[in-house]
Amino acid sequence: MKFKLNLVTLALLANAGIVSTAMAAGGYGIQDANTDKVKFDKWACKRCVVETGVNGTVGIGMGYNNSDDIRSANAFAAEDEFAYKVDADLKYINESGYRATVEADNLGMENGRLDVNAGKTGQYNLNLNYRQIATYKTDSAMTPYQGVGGDHLTLPDNWQTAGSSQDMTQLYSSLNPMELSLKRKRAGLGFDYTFDAEPGEELWTTYLNYQREDKTGLKQASGSFYNQSMMLAEPVDYTTDTVEAGIKLKGDNWFTALNYSGSSFKNQYSQLTFDNAFNPTFGAQTQGTMALDPDNEAHTVSLMGQVTADKTILSGRVHYGQMTQDQAFVTSGYGYQMPAESLDGRVDMTGVNLKLVSRLNRSVRIKASYDYSDRDNKTNVEEWTQISIDSTSGQVAYNTPYDITTQRAKLSANYSITRGMRLEAGYDYRQDDRSYQDRETTNEHTLWSKFRLSKFDNWDMWIKGSYGQRDGSEYQASEWTSNESNDLLRKYNLADRKRTMVEARVTHSPTEALTIDFGTRYALDDYNDTQIGLTESRDLSYNVSANYLINDDMTLTAFYSRQNIESDQSGSSNFSTPNWFGVVEDEVDVIGAGWSYNNLMEKKLRLGVDYTYSKSDSNTQVTQGVTGDYGDYYAKSHNINIYGQYQATEKMALRVDYKMEKYQDNDAGNEIAPDGIWNVVSFGSNSHDYNAHLIMLSMSYRL
């Protein structure tokens, strides 16, 4: 049989390993091809045309928000009655390779973001970014204090102190509403540059990123005098500066990188002073002071690298970090000598990470890793005078410099039994060494195996099982960490534990238009040697989803997930053997569905609706002779988004969104009247039960 081989055919055959050694030896190798008459300058990829200039879309939107509960802003990202936003996805490219991109999403709303990049591909890039994040708790918290938002809270001039909140005659007439919310604004600047050893070959790159975050708002706090307390609005005015820099060197089969990251946290307020709403008792003051989050810094330097040798990849990282805090102690109203002017806190952190991946043959691949981290608290230990009811107790205490060293090792093998059938198995080990803890050392051993089957058409499934056991050194109460008198008490993070877990997932496509996915997980934690404390925990979750393409223009999706967590606890009211038992049951359900219809009205209109329902329940029962129910806590919400998009012209599109949230919760902790507890002045009822609506009209234009 005779045939002709051109240059492209030979290249494809050689790359596929079809051209034999003998053929190459006979002068038919690629290196022997005669390319003298090939006009390389005429070669062109007609389908690889890069569009120059500006292209993309830009859009604006305006919405009306109807809500009587500010918590709805967590779902709508809109706090005010009217909302505005800017969206953009723009790209600019010129013939010399310079390019710039602008991405904006909901800019102007409470979850808005902006990302701008400019540079030359493979050489340098300048990045500007902005992000806004807001979290709203309530706008109906009630307080009698004046000066909310600052660091000095005072009561009205006509305030009458009393021994009980129910006897405060000016309480209800002095209440004013306030908003508990936190807002973050992040702005960043970054630059990276790539140095070329030869044209088209990267040798090393460097980068520098700076970010500032401002966090403002109010959060819930409390101030106390002996056994009497008042809920307070703590001011939040934080500034965090973060710097990251590094350099990376790259070879044919290796790379190494040196990185630095540092952060500086500043709090505008160092302390919060507040008036005592109660009658001063036991020598208590008429005004109290509490320290707020102190300024601090953190710095980390790391060296990492990776090398590839044949079918083996070895990577590693070593790092050293230090956290410091040296803000002066708050001593307002404190009449005793301090052992130092500040904590002068310092924590050193070191770590090593190693990972090996190797393919032994076509069927077997192994992975191994080792991680070491050490947290060494080098804060000076001082002798502190203990205070009880605003007088010295005659005893001293010492600050505890907690240290922890953690080592993790993992080894696993991946075996391909046949095409579409794979088996994995592994062993995980963890050891924690703690100082000044009830248990100095804990050891965890876990064996696991995973089987995956995908050889059948339209089926993909896997199942994974694991068994782990934690034990360690002798458990004994430490005077540094606790003062409990029951030797049978065990802390759940230190106690012996046996953990059994099974996971599985199945994905099936019975037709080209339908895909069904199902997954489940069950975990059992048995604290087999615990008599007082957490004795058992069960966690069952499962989820199912479906995606159905009804026709070329219509799509339907649906999903459902559920999680059940049940925990058993035992205790002793007489500091002896267990005599009461508690069960906590938590359930979370999430249901969702979506429908979209495209290409209506001569392919100009798109309609859709998305719906989500979520509900969480929690119930606690305690048995001590008789069974008592603490009552249910629940939170449930319905969220709907109905939208339509119309292509008015070739470049301009109009869109309207209607969003609705119906939310309700029931938390006894949020249902306390300002004088509901005799020795507490609370924020009042802060449960939620609302219907909120948002209508957003937006326009986008394609350049």
Automatic annotation (TrEMBL):
InterPro entries: Beta-barrel_TonB_sf (IPR036942), Decahaem-assoc_OM_MtrB/PioB (IPR020016). Keywords: Cell outer membrane, Membrane, Signal. GO terms for cellular component: cell outer membrane. It comes from the Bacteria. It is found in: Cell outer membrane. SUPFAM superfamilies: Porins (SSF56935). Residues 1-24 form the signal peptide. Pfam families: MtrB_PioB. The keyword Membrane applies. This is Decaheme-associated outer membrane protein, MtrB/PioB family.
